[in-house]
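Retro notes (design track)

What went well: tokenization of the new backbones is finally stable.
What didn't: we kept losing track of which sequence belonged to which structure.
Fix going forward: every design gets posted as structure first, then sequence, in one message. First example under the new rule, 97 residues:
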């Protein structure tokens, strides 16, 4: 995904403008294991569907049954200071391998 965004910035492999890269990343979308993943341009975090599930017994064993798709929570205000500080670390709730 990051490589595609790099190529979208100017159609070449060298990024000359950080703003162009951030804009391309802000428009990025892809299909993940849980559904469509988009990037929130304000927080630069991945946004994906959140499901309420229930474990049910089936003839093939236990399985997750989706009861509802939940609305995405607003960005946690406590993270706002961390996102603009010099600290680094994992702050994104979505992991895609």
């Amino acid at each position: 995904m990051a490589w595609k965004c790099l190529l979208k910035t100017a159609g070449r492999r060298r990024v000359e403008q950080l703003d162009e890269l951030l804009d391309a990343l802000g428009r990025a979308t892809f299909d993940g294991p849980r559904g469509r993943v988009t990037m929130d341009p304000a927080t630069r975090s991945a946004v994906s569907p959140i499901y309420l599930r229930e474990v049910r017994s089936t003839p093939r064993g236990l399985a997750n049954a989706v009861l509802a798709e939940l609305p995405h929570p607003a960005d946690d205000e406590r993270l706002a200071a961390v996102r603009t500080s010099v600290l680094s670390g994992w702050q994104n709730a979505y992991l895609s391998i």
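Added context from the reviewer: The chain is about 25% helix and 35% strand.
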